[in-house]
Amino acid sequence: MRDQAWRLRMMVEEKVVPVRGRARVIAVTSGKGGVGKTNISVGLALAAAASGLRTVLLDGDLGLANIDVLLDLHPKRNLGHLIDGRATLEEVLINAPGGVKVLPGASGLTNVADLGLLQKQRLLDAVGRLVEEFDLVLIDTGAGISRAVLDLCICAGEVLVVTTPEPTAIVDAYAMLKVFSKEEDAPRNWLVVNQVLSRGEAQQVSSRMIGLAHQFLGHEIRDCGAIFQDPRVSASVRKRQHFSLSYPSCPAARGVRDLARNLGLSRRQGSQGFLQRIKVLWSGDLSSAHERSV
Ligand SMILES: Nc1ncnc2c1ncn2[C@@H]1O[C@H](COP(=O)(O)OP(=O)(O)OP(=O)(O)O)[C@@H](O)[C@H]1O
Ligand SMILES: [Mg+2]
Prior knowledge:
Layout: H1 4-12, E1 24-29, H2 37-50, E2 55-60, H3 67-70, H4 79-83, H5 89-92, E3 94-95, E4 101-103, H6 117-133, E5 136-141, H7 147-156, E6 158-163, H8 167-182, E7 188-196, H9 199-217, E8 221-228, H10 231-239, H11 243-246, H12 251-262, H13 274-293
Parallel strand pairs: 1-5, 1-6, 2-4, 2-5, 6-7, 7-8
Antiparallel strand pairs: 3-4
Helix pairs in contact: 1-13, 2-12, 6-13, 7-13, 8-9
The chain binds adenosine-5'-triphosphate and magnesium ion.
């Protein structure tokens, strides 16, 4: 009998769902929490949209989604509704300032791997449409080395690792890079140092991390800038408006715009195979479901 598992298996084998993804997909992550991922993701999304890129920001912090809080959005539905079939992609995507679309996260959804087959299929369908309909998909992940975060990063193919100059943040970022470096299909890594006090400090942190990763992990990381510690960031969070909108010429806002430029977000770039990687990641899972069902 041709059931759900069969359809999913066909999908994995690319016989049913054609893979035509075009969007560039970048995950923003960190080893240590609270280093500025969400603020940076939102800032990058705003900068990319201002450059004319159709941009969607996916709240991939599955434990504690909070992009909506930062942007004063009030979503009625989120990723959880989409995955459970209680809302369509159109119903879940909401308009954020600057023309950015936000896919609000599902707080409490801790492990994508635990999703059922139908839920995975819905997620895959939605992702397929995002990479088809947008130029840039930015994913704000949770902190730390959980399977869910790693899977998101590996599937994205490009990962912006955020650290601060604090030794604890640096050590945790290095641990994260170490895990990436061991992956067969290691993502391309970018580094940004947030909350720096001077350009010298930023330079010191990035060259140390890049050197260590090169020497001990054989893993190349690209430095793509630094963002100054700036009291207007916290003031803007309290106002629930991003600092690049409330204080567009403050040092942090300038840093985020430079970061966007260094990442090449001022122009369209091709897909890096996001959908294919998700399918590969789930293929064993889906195939064994097929075997159970026949
Ligand atoms: N450049 C900066 N200057 C000053 N404060 C900053 C800066 N970047 C971030 N912060 C402060 O750090 C706090 C945490 O930032 P944010 O929520 O973006 O971090 P996060 O990495 O997403 O955290 P989590 O790991 O909990 O998801 C912000 O509320 C803000 O007060
Ligand atoms: Mg966050």
